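YM 10:42: IclR family transcriptional regulator sequence, as discussed on the call
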Amino acid sequence: METQKSPLRRARGRPRGWDDKTAQNTIKSLDRAMEVFEYLSLAQGKPLTALAEETGQSPATVYRILVTLEGRGLVEFDPEDQVWHIGPQAFAIGARFLRRTSLVERARPIMRRLMEATGETANLGIEKEGSVLFISQVETYATIRAFFPPGTLSPMHASGIGKALLAHMDAARLGRLLSSARMERFSERTITDPEALQRDLTEIRRRGYSVDDEEKNPGMRCIAAPVFDMTREAVAGISVSGPTSRVTEAGIAELSGAVIEAAAELTLAIGGSPPD
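YM 10:58: structure's back
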């Protein structure tokens, strides 16, 4: 006798028409709310009128969105300055995302040893939509320090981790990123010429590490090396950063050895392999 299949046999969490991403399957009000939320995460401390103008939505709509998000702790209002900020619940949700992967967990002891060995702040970052997303940091005990809290985004062309990742991208993807990126100048040392950046990336591949030599923040240097996964793809970068008074040009060679060693250790810890 033929038995009926239970509806639970269907792929859980995937209704029919899963691949249909047309307008009928999106919630426009939610999409507008997420647009405001994402914009506020990049532009902290915005008044209502500026948020409405810069997202192209009416003040009344943006206000309703903000009040709803505030009720969930995702945004908060500063009554003194009359501006809106990302709320603590946004960090809590982001932290849950980071716990999905063992990368951050396995990197922590390695980063701590790197910080103690070099005396400088250790950072971990990944590529996120053409930028570097910092996902973990172990701060130095020194009073003057670099500070890239988890969630910070930085342009790849002016970042030690960013250049370490760019140097190991396949040519097609690298070409797409460089052609679409706006290579903003942050200091006199920022590389804004694509050909000059390509030459720098070639040298980074050869020696195994990159240097942000006051290219993003004058007076600060960063030395980074890539972390590879099991497919030998550069999926993250690990770095040390600090003031030029401590991270001197003469000291780059010694510090780079510690950074390369830490990146290789993390590569092995996540089951990865460096490219041939």
